[in-house]
Design brief:
Elements (H helix, E strand, L loop, with lengths): L2 H19 L7 H15 L6 E2 L2 E2 L6 H13 L3 H26 L5 H9 L2 H7 L5 H20 L3 H18 L2 H16 L3 H8 L2 H33 L2 H5 L11 H10 L3 H10 L6 H19 L15 H12 L6 H27 L7 H8 L2 H19 L4 H28 L1 H11 L5 E3 L6 H6 L3 E3 L6 E5 L10 E7 L2 E6 L2
Parallel strand pairs: 3-4, 3-5
Antiparallel strand pairs: 1-2, 5-7, 6-7
Helix pairs in contact: 1-5, 1-20, 2-3, 3-4, 4-5, 4-7, 5-16, 7-8, 7-9, 8-11, 9-10, 9-15, 14-16, 17-18, 17-19, 19-20
């Protein structure tokens, strides 16, 4: 496809982010980041992340700072929280597309940019009000620098590498070092350039840049929370997740072999064929990208804690891998196999509300609104367009449509459906009632106790400091199935779905 066509498709992708910008927060991670950032502003305490009366030691400080600045500019709303992640993702995609353009022939930046942002997993993660978009950006920038240093020894590369490591460190601890350090070590060993790796590792200029960025906050936080808490923040949350299962997020060793295909639809076949087409012996650039993807896949497969978005730290190279296959098929017309594959993809999408309705019929879940599922099941603005797409793919075969055009339509349509329908539905089903309860609580005086719940988005929307534990408060936020555990007298002052706001009777 031409550059003009690609730029138009990029414009359409940007439009798909509009509804996501105003999408309600998801618990637990988005709610925790949002509530912590807002609490920093309310308490005018910008150096120690806290939520309620607890230290929030899951992540370092950088993401909170960015969200705080955005809230100051745009106010305490979803737009302010999601916009920085989206901007970071666009920079991430542009940086990688420029990197590919620099080291390959006849590759349009717009093509790589499109490939990356139309990966469903990337689209979802790129708008999340969490640390992951920022970490992906810093991982990508550091990987670019490390590869470039293997070609050209430049002190500027060393300095910027130190800065990127520092920013990644302040975003999600040692994760950036574990990934980028190991990938570059493997690559340099294979290319017999270990001296280059040691030069980077021992560079005083890189270390100085790292220390200048990290040390001020590091010293402050060490003095405030102590060495044991600091060890948990930087080491326990990184290597601890590798050796131990956190918060019940476990899975078999083949977990990502099941999850990844759904995160890269509808480019699954392109990824498999593109990986097979990589020239690992004769092309250093392709070898480096291959190591990047495979190492992340293996590393997190061996990790005790497994979450879908972890694999996204390694999917950036797949934007090039997809392009590698597209080079071979750009003149091809739609085949019967391609038609069946894309029809299958969209039948899976179409089945989502029906599958959720089936699950709700066999198992009661107080975390999900059955009313929202029923509404989605009867949402013809979702069902009809998806059916039309399936018909379109069938027709495309008979009229001899270009395969690349069909792939782009399918990828863009999936992003659009995610942004306009599926993500809003999931939010409505899991978060809408919490948001309504929070707005009711916002009108009342006093802090709130979250009883046997961890829904931190409540604190953000209620604009209150919400506690978990045994604190004495007049207001209590809980779920109807938790009421039997309350040992006090109360009255229900608000209820939405399965969630209730209680007032303690003195």
């Amino acid at each position: 496809m031409s550059t003009v066509q690609n730029k138009f498709l990029i414009f359409l992708i940007v439009l798909c982010y509009i509804p996501v910008l105003f999408l309600g927060l998801f618990d637990v991670d988005e709610g925790a980041f949002a509530s912590t950032s807002l609490q920093m502003i309310k308490q005018k305490q910008y150096l120690i992340p806290t939520i309620g009366d607890e230290l929030r030691l899951e992540k370092p400080i950088l993401t909170y700072w960015v969200q705080v600045m955005s809230i100051y500019i745009f106010g305490p709303n979803e737009f302010a929280l999601r916009l920085p992640s989206i901007i970071a993702s666009f920079i991430w995609a542009y940086s990688f597309s420029s990197f590919v353009n620099q080291h390959t022939r006849n590759v349009r930046r717009s093509e790589i940019f499109l490939n990356l942002l139309t990966l469903p997993g990337v689209f979802i993660m790129s708008s999340a009000a969490t640390a992951d978009a920022f970490l992906n950006l810093f991982i990508t920038l550091l990987m670019i620098n490390l590869f470039n240093y293997s070609i050209k020894k430049d002190d500027k590369i060393l300095i910027w590498s130190g800065i990127y490591v520092a920013l990644g460190f302040l975003t999600k601890g040692l994760t950036i070092i574990a990934i980028c350090g190991t990938v570059s070590l493997i690559y340099f060993l294979l290319k017999r350039k270990l001296l280059n790796f040691l030069t980077i590792l021992l560079s005083w200029k890189a270390w100085l840049a790292f220390v200048i960025v990290v040390l001020p906050w590091f010293i402050f936080i060490l003095n405030e929370i102590g060495i044991s808490n600091l060890n948990y923040l930087f080491f326990g949350q990184t290597f601890g997740r590798f050796t131990n299962t956190f918060e019940g997020h476990e899975g078999p060793i083949f977990y990502y072999l099941i999850v990844t295909p759904f995160l890269i639809l509808p480019y699954l076949i392109d990824v498999f064929k593109g990986l097979a087409k990589l020239n690992l012996r004769g092309n250093d650039f392709e070898l480096f990208l291959f190591i990047w993807f495979v190492f992340v896949l293996i590393f997190f497969s061996l990790s005790s804690t497994k979450l879908p978005h972890y694999i996204l730290y390694g999917v950036t190279p797949l934007a090039y891998v997809v392009h590698k296959n597209h080079l071979k098929i750009f003149r091809n017309k739609v085949s019967i196999f391609s038609t069946l594959f894309h029809c299958m993809v969209w039948l899976i999408v179409l089945s989502v509300p029906f599958y959720l309705n089936y699950l709700s019929s066999i198992k009661v879940s107080y975390d999900v609104s059955n009313a929202a599922i029923d509404n989605f099941l009867n949402d013809y603005t979702f069902i009809v367009p998806v059916l039309c797409l399936i018909v379109f793919f069938v027709i495309s075969y008979f009229i001899g449509m270009k395969l690349m055009f069909m792939k782009r339509i399918s990828a863009l349509a999936l992003v659009a459906v995610l942004g306009f329908k599926i993500m809003p539905f999931v939010n409505d089903a899991t978060q809408a009632d919490i948001k309504k309860i929070a707005f009711d609580a916002k009108e009342l005086q006093g802090d709130v106790l979250m009883f046997r719940l961890n829904k931190p988005s409540f604190a953000f929307y209620a604009d209150k400091i919400s506690y978990r534990g045994s604190q004495t408060t007049n207001l209590i936020f809980t779920r109807v199935d938790k009421l039997i555990f309350l040992k006090i007298e109360y009255e229900i002052i608000s209820q939405h779905g399965n969630y209730v706001l209680l007032k303690k009777i003195k």
